[in-house]
Design a protein that fits this description.
The protein is 60% helix and 11% strand. The chain is mainly alpha-helical and 124 residues long.
Length: 124
Protein backbone atom coordinates (compact mmCIF):
# COMPACT_ATOMS: atom_id res chain seq x y z
CA UNK A 1 0.00 0.00 0.00
CA UNK A 2 1.32 3.41 -0.91
CA UNK A 3 1.66 5.83 1.99
CA UNK A 4 -0.18 9.11 2.23
CA UNK A 5 3.18 10.90 1.92
CA UNK A 6 3.25 10.38 -1.84
CA UNK A 7 2.18 13.44 -3.71
CA UNK A 8 2.54 14.90 -7.12
CA UNK A 9 5.64 16.90 -7.79
CA UNK A 10 5.02 20.63 -7.70
CA UNK A 11 6.52 23.57 -9.56
CA UNK A 12 9.49 23.78 -7.18
CA UNK A 13 10.40 20.13 -7.72
CA UNK A 14 10.09 20.42 -11.50
CA UNK A 15 12.25 23.55 -11.48
CA UNK A 16 14.80 21.70 -9.32
CA UNK A 17 14.85 18.85 -11.86
CA UNK A 18 15.36 21.28 -14.76
CA UNK A 19 18.22 23.06 -12.98
CA UNK A 20 19.89 19.77 -12.05
CA UNK A 21 19.55 18.62 -15.68
CA UNK A 22 21.27 21.83 -16.82
CA UNK A 23 24.12 20.86 -14.49
CA UNK A 24 24.47 17.55 -16.40
CA UNK A 25 22.69 15.38 -13.85
CA UNK A 26 20.77 12.54 -15.46
CA UNK A 27 16.99 12.80 -15.57
CA UNK A 28 16.39 9.77 -13.29
CA UNK A 29 18.85 11.03 -10.66
CA UNK A 30 17.42 14.56 -10.79
CA UNK A 31 13.82 13.31 -10.47
CA UNK A 32 14.70 10.93 -7.65
CA UNK A 33 16.56 13.64 -5.76
CA UNK A 34 13.61 16.00 -6.19
CA UNK A 35 11.23 13.34 -4.83
CA UNK A 36 13.39 12.67 -1.80
CA UNK A 37 14.05 16.35 -1.09
CA UNK A 38 10.62 16.94 0.49
CA UNK A 39 9.70 13.63 2.03
CA UNK A 40 11.20 11.73 4.90
CA UNK A 41 11.31 8.16 3.55
CA UNK A 42 9.94 6.63 0.36
CA UNK A 43 9.74 3.20 -1.21
CA UNK A 44 10.96 2.59 -4.72
CA UNK A 45 7.33 2.27 -5.81
CA UNK A 46 6.42 5.63 -4.26
CA UNK A 47 9.33 7.27 -6.09
CA UNK A 48 8.15 5.66 -9.34
CA UNK A 49 4.62 6.97 -8.86
CA UNK A 50 5.72 10.48 -7.89
CA UNK A 51 8.43 10.91 -10.53
CA UNK A 52 7.03 8.90 -13.43
CA UNK A 53 10.22 6.84 -13.57
CA UNK A 54 10.33 3.10 -14.16
CA UNK A 55 11.73 0.75 -11.52
CA UNK A 56 15.10 0.18 -13.26
CA UNK A 57 15.59 3.95 -13.55
CA UNK A 58 14.97 4.38 -9.82
CA UNK A 59 17.49 1.62 -9.05
CA UNK A 60 20.14 3.27 -11.24
CA UNK A 61 19.45 6.67 -9.64
CA UNK A 62 19.73 5.15 -6.16
CA UNK A 63 23.11 3.62 -7.01
CA UNK A 64 24.31 7.10 -8.01
CA UNK A 65 22.94 8.76 -4.87
CA UNK A 66 24.31 5.93 -2.71
CA UNK A 67 27.77 6.33 -4.30
CA UNK A 68 27.89 9.82 -2.76
CA UNK A 69 26.43 8.52 0.54
CA UNK A 70 23.48 10.88 0.13
CA UNK A 71 20.80 8.24 0.85
CA UNK A 72 20.08 5.62 3.43
CA UNK A 73 18.62 2.38 2.12
CA UNK A 74 16.61 0.35 4.59
CA UNK A 75 14.80 -2.93 4.01
CA UNK A 76 11.49 -3.75 5.62
CA UNK A 77 9.69 -7.08 5.46
CA UNK A 78 6.34 -7.06 3.71
CA UNK A 79 3.36 -7.17 6.03
CA UNK A 80 1.33 -9.23 3.58
CA UNK A 81 2.27 -12.03 1.23
CA UNK A 82 5.63 -13.26 0.13
CA UNK A 83 8.40 -11.74 -1.86
CA UNK A 84 11.38 -9.51 -1.47
CA UNK A 85 11.58 -7.01 1.36
CA UNK A 86 10.52 -3.46 0.56
CA UNK A 87 13.39 -1.00 0.22
CA UNK A 88 12.92 2.41 1.80
CA UNK A 89 15.05 5.38 0.78
CA UNK A 90 15.78 8.55 2.68
CA UNK A 91 18.13 11.47 2.08
CA UNK A 92 20.66 11.57 4.90
CA UNK A 93 22.50 14.66 3.67
CA UNK A 94 20.80 18.06 3.64
CA UNK A 95 19.92 19.28 0.16
CA UNK A 96 22.14 22.34 0.74
CA UNK A 97 25.15 20.03 1.21
CA UNK A 98 24.30 18.08 -1.94
CA UNK A 99 24.10 21.33 -3.90
CA UNK A 100 27.47 22.38 -2.44
CA UNK A 101 29.02 19.07 -3.58
CA UNK A 102 27.64 19.61 -7.10
CA UNK A 103 28.97 23.18 -7.08
CA UNK A 104 32.44 22.06 -5.93
CA UNK A 105 32.60 19.41 -8.68
CA UNK A 106 31.63 21.93 -11.37
CA UNK A 107 34.18 24.48 -10.10
CA UNK A 108 36.89 21.80 -10.18
CA UNK A 109 35.90 20.70 -13.70
CA UNK A 110 35.93 24.29 -14.94
CA UNK A 111 39.31 24.92 -13.31
CA UNK A 112 40.77 21.99 -15.24
CA UNK A 113 39.23 23.26 -18.50
CA UNK A 114 40.65 26.74 -17.92
CA UNK A 115 44.09 25.28 -17.15
CA UNK A 116 43.96 23.33 -20.43
CA UNK A 117 43.01 26.47 -22.34
CA UNK A 118 45.94 28.31 -20.76
CA UNK A 119 48.28 25.47 -21.77
CA UNK A 120 47.02 25.74 -25.33
CA UNK A 121 47.64 29.48 -25.31
CA UNK A 122 51.19 28.90 -24.03
CA UNK A 123 51.82 26.35 -26.79
CA UNK A 124 50.62 28.62 -29.61
Amino acid sequence: MISEQVMMMGDNEFEMVELLRKLNMTRPVALTLACLSNLSELTSREIEMTSGLRQPEVSIAMRHLNKYNWVNIREEKKTEGKGRPIKLYKLVVPLEDIIKTIEDEIILENKVVLENIQRLKNLS
